């Protein structure tokens, strides 16, 4: 058995940064961690309910959510790939989202500020690419076509390599198996190589599929 490690945690402090920036005493660390999870889930649920319908893409288009906590402020930055899925320009939508998150967090002494940042090339981020592939699988597209289409979308960005792995009852077969494809270089053992990674769960009528995507962005 190989010794596996998360590519993002493996590169923390070199090419990857934390998605949460805050400090807490050891006894309060679990409370802060659960608070981060509530904030992220609340934002994703709100975007899922209030997004605009787009043909061919059923995801929410969020690449990542960064949370910065201070004594009297919680700063949340949402990196979104398709702002037309969400009414970004209306301040009412952001204010409503802030109110929902404030109720979920139940923080009286801290203000909440939410900012939305647009991503120029969304398909260069594994989370958005995984959502696209999930929508393809739910539309009964063959897994080979979905993988090749995902690689074509990634080639339009400035990435140097991509690896996609799918595990489970692929195409409804009775026996579960693992299929993978790679295009370009993906040096997983090189720490200075900046690699984006995501693990995504796809729920289909035949069962659950596990999807993993590695994208080699650049080398420092």
UniProtKB/TrEMBL annotation:
InterPro entries: KH_dom-like_a/b, KH_dom_type_2, KH_sf_prok-type, Ribosomal_S3_C_sf, Ribosomal_uS3, Ribosomal_uS3_bac-typ, Ribosomal_uS3_C, Ribosomal_uS3_CS
KH type-2 domain segment(s): 43-120
Entry GO terms, CC: chloroplast; cytosolic small ribosomal subunit
Keyword field contains NADP: no
Classification via Pfam families: Ribosomal_S3_C
Keywords of this entry: Chloroplast, Plastid, Ribonucleoprotein, Ribosomal protein, RNA-binding, rRNA-binding
Compartments reported by the entry: Plastid, Chloroplast
GO biological process: translation
SUPFAM superfamilies, A to Z: Prokaryotic type KH domain (KH-domain type II) (SSF54814), Ribosomal protein S3 C-terminal domain (SSF54821)
Gene3D superfamilies the record matches: 3.30.300.20, Ribosomal protein S3, C-terminal domain (3.30.1140.32)
GO terms assigned for molecular function: rRNA binding; structural constituent of ribosome
Family statement: Belongs to the universal ribosomal protein uS3 family.
HAMAP family xrefs: Ribosomal_uS3_B
Name of the protein described by the UniProt record: Small ribosomal subunit protein uS3c
Organism, scientific name: Chlorophytum comosum
Phylogenetic placement of the source organism: Eukaryota, Viridiplantae, Streptophyta, Embryophyta, Tracheophyta
Chain's gene name: rps3
């Amino acid at each position: 058995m190989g010794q596996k490690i998360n590519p993002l945690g493996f590169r923390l402090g070199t090419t990857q940064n934390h998605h949460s920036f805050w400090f807490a005493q050891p006894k309060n660390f679990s409370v802060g961690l659960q608070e981060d999870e509530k904030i992220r889930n609340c934002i994703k649920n709100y975007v899922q309910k209030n997004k605009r319908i787009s043909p061919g893409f059923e995801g929410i288009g969020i690449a990542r959510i960064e949370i910065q906590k201070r004594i009297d402020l919680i700063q949340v930055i949402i990196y979104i790939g398709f702002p037309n899925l969400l009414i970004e320009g209306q301040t009412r939508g952001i204010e409503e989202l802030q109110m929902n998150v404030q109720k979920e967090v139940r923080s009286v002494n801290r203000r909440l500020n939410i900012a939305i940042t647009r991503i120029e090339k969304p398909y260069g981020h594994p989370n958005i690419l995984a959502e696209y592939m999930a929508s393809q699988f739910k539309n009964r597209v063959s897994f080979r076509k979905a993988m090749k289409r995902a690689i074509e979308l990634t080639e339009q960005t400035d990435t140097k390599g991509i690896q996609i792995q799918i595990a489970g009852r692929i195409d409804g077969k009775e026996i579960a198996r693992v299929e993978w494809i790679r295009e370009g270089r993906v040096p997983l053992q090189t720490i200075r190589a900046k690699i984006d990674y995501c693990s995504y769960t796809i729920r289909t009528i035949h069962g659950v599929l596990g999807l993993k995507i590695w994208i080699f962005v650049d080398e420092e």
